[in-house]
From TrEMBL:
Entries under PROSITE patterns matching the protein: HTH_MYB, MYB_LIKE
Keyword Hydrolase assigned: no
Domain (HTH myb-type): residue spans on this chain: 9-61, 62-116
Repeat listed as a keyword: yes
Domain Myb-like: 9-61, 62-112
One GO MF term: transcription cis-regulatory region binding
Region (Disordered): 300-319
Species name: Capsicum annuum (Capsicum pepper)
Phylogenetic placement of the source organism: Eukaryota, Viridiplantae, Streptophyta, Embryophyta, Tracheophyta
Protein name stated in the entry: Transcription factor MYB32
UniProt keywords, alphabetically: DNA-binding, Nucleus, Repeat, Transcription, Transcription regulation
Cellular component terms (Gene Ontology): nucleus
DNA sequence: AAAGACACCAACCGCCCAACC
DNA sequence: TGGTTGGGCGGTTGGTGTCTT
């Protein structure tokens, strides 16, 4: 039995998400938080599989998403991290607040890879194309990663650590034999990782004035979710709702908006935050739930969700 | 103006791992 | 201890917009 049969059997929807579906999912997660994804479709009234809901939330609806074009700093960082981590997009995304692995992966495949090739650099080895025959030295790769990042991004030196060396695929890495090959420093880093967590932005948001821009600086704000962004200004319109499914023009418009929000001043402020982020801690189990004041288990069925679904949500105006 | 090629990116697929029973 | 389930990840696909001829 393949997945297709599951979709057919349960008459699950596939493909692009409609604004209505987005709204249902958004309303549900913002009210009840992230819990068991497999139960989300049922409880939120969506005819999607849990995985699809999770993906949509993570890659599109999550309030901390930055979206828009990548800055030069981000671009540089992706290239540096890719040199160290390879195609481990989730780990790369973890170092870039507001960016998803999917977004970075797409950006890499559609733009950065070609850019490097144009510059005569092999996008896989990150060496000049003429030096492709050279075999990379992977030992001490974790240290190399940290050094690379520290040299290129001094502002992040204390908050970014590489979790795993380049070619140690997570699945292989659990092997004791391989672990033994690491240097003492690398092992320590892996064991006692103090990794910058992009989700600390949730904390930031929680402490932020929900109506006004951060510290009066309009360049710096959580502007990923158009509806939230516009809600900051006290109103929203139907056209503000993110809709990748009906119009690609909307994506372009959104992108243009985001460019305005992410000036270099904003990035500078972000860097300052990153510098200070070493002081922050985040309980992984409560990353998202703490953003939303509603516990996941506060809802038992779809009826509860409907009853609890008041009209205070920004999206409710779309109804 | 039309058709084909290309680019972009949201969403899906398949696999792995960990937790749970 | 083995099976099941859910979550996470990287690779890939396919739909749509844009560009080129």
């Amino acid at each position: 039995m393949g997945r297709h049969s599951v979709y057919v059997k349960e008459k699950l929807r596939r493909g692009l998400w409609s604004p209505d579906e987005d709204e249902k999912l958004y309303n549900y997660i913002t009210r009840f938080g992230v819990g068991c994804w497999s139960s989300v479709p049922k409880l939120s009234g969506l005819q999607r599989c849990g995985k699809s809901c999770r993906l949509r939330w993570i890659n599109y609806l999550r309030p901390d998403l930055k979206r828009g074009t990548f800055s030069l700093e981000e671009e540089d960082m992706i290239i540096t991290l890719h040199e160290v981590l390879g195609n481990r997009w989730a780990q790369i995304a973890a170092k870039l607040p507001g960016r998803t692995d999917n977004e970075i992966k797409n950006y890499w495949n559609s733009y950065l890879k070609k850019k490097l090739i144009k510059q005569g650099i092999d996008p896989i080895t990150h060496k000049p194309l003429s030096e492709n025959h050279q075999v990379r030295n992977d030992t001490n790769c974790t240290d190399k990663a940290s050094m690379l990042l520290m040299s290129k991004f001094p502002n992040m030196s204390n908050s970014v650590e590489i979790e795993q060396p380049f070619h140690f695929n997570k699945r292989i890495f659990n092997s004791e034999a391989i672990t033994r090959q690491l240097t003492e420093v690398s092992r320590n880093q892996l064991v006692s990782k103090q990794v910058f967590d992009p989700l600390f932005l949730y904390d930031f948001q929680a402490n932020m004035n929900p109506i006004g821009p951060y510290d009066g600086n309009q360049d710096f704000g959580i502007c990923s979710m158009p509806n939230l962004t516009n809600f900051e200004h006290g109103h929203m319109t139907e056209s503000d709702f993110s809709d990748s499914s009906t119009s690609r023009m909307s994506t372009s418009n959104r992108t243009n908006t985001m460019i305005r929000h992410h000036s270099s001043a904003g990035i500078h402020q972000m860097n300052e935050m990153l510098e200070n982020s070493q002081e922050l801690t985040w309980d992984a189990d409560n990353k998202i739930d703490s953003l939303f004041e509603y516990p996941y288990d506060g809802i038992k069925n779809e009826e509860d969700f409907s009853n609890n679904n008041n009209n205070n949500n920004p999206l409710s105006s779309l109804l």
